């Protein structure tokens, strides 16, 4: 499958997009849409985290279902009207499904889905859009964050760890709540640093590695030796700071140990709290191709594999007591013995 990068001519519709063309334009199942449309959140493709997880699902869907795809980057400081225009552009072109990557797309998805009732829309990390042609693709982030907390509390040598959130919003509070609960299940007296980079996404909390690096340096100087981030692209700065100081970082959303852009720091990535955004993108696309579109709330958890904890780092795998504790915590959550708080 050939992939060509094309520039968008329409103002306000994003910087660029990628379009992959299949031979037939439709799958063998009788699917007649033009392909999958994906509109990225702040930070865009290349964040090695949230958006890249969506892109992985996008690529896999293109390949497996032999359909085309178009993905569009956000603009700095864009408005909700820009997002509406972007989704309408994809809808007019015939893409189906069309997925907004991130809760910021809620108003745009609600508006555009009403205009195109025959197209299935998906929105990741938002459950407020209720329509017969919309799938709310959400996750129990607090569960994977609990595992991150257990890992951090078992791995720390100072009983002092840290959490860095990108933006001070309820979604990211779920990550912190799970992390704190998991850590305190190991050591009720553990010290936990906490910091949010910005109050709003527009201030760059999810897209500023320098802010992440500064925050991590501050927590490390305060004594933390394991730092978990839920900060999108800003998390690259957190990971860099941790590696510079030779302390552990815990990644988020994607398996950040496996990300090529982070290769020079990966020895210090203990693990990552996974959110199967790619799987959600893929599953929604499959449902549309199969003629049975998913709608309503579709929530991933530990039991379904929608969230998890990545163990790719051999150094983590060698820490048998840490691995055992995380595995036990995972099973306890699946079995209902542990209920993880969301705030």
Polypeptide structure, described:
With 343 residues, the protein is an alpha/beta fold. The protein has helices spanning 50-65, 80-92, 106-115, 141-155, 170-186, 209-222, 235-245, 277-289, 314-317, 320-334, and strands at residues 3-7, 16-20, 35-39, 68-72, 98-100, 121-124, 134-139, 160-167, 191-198, 226-230, 248-253, 269-275, 296-300, 307-310. Strand 10, helix 7 and strand 11 form a beta-alpha-beta unit. Helix 4 (141-155) packs parallel to helix 5 (170-186) and helix 4 packs antiparallel against helix 10. The termini are far apart.
Topology:
Blueprint: E1 3-7, E2 16-20, E3 35-39, H1 50-65, E4 68-72, H2 80-92, E5 98-100, H3 106-115, E6 121-124, E7 134-139, H4 141-155, E8 160-167, H5 170-186, E9 191-198, H6 209-222, E10 226-230, H7 235-245, E11 248-253, E12 269-275, H8 277-289, E13 296-300, E14 307-310, H9 314-317, H10 320-334
Parallel strand pairs: 3-4, 3-5, 5-6, 6-7, 7-13, 8-9, 8-10, 10-11, 11-12
Antiparallel strand pairs: 1-2, 2-4, 12-14
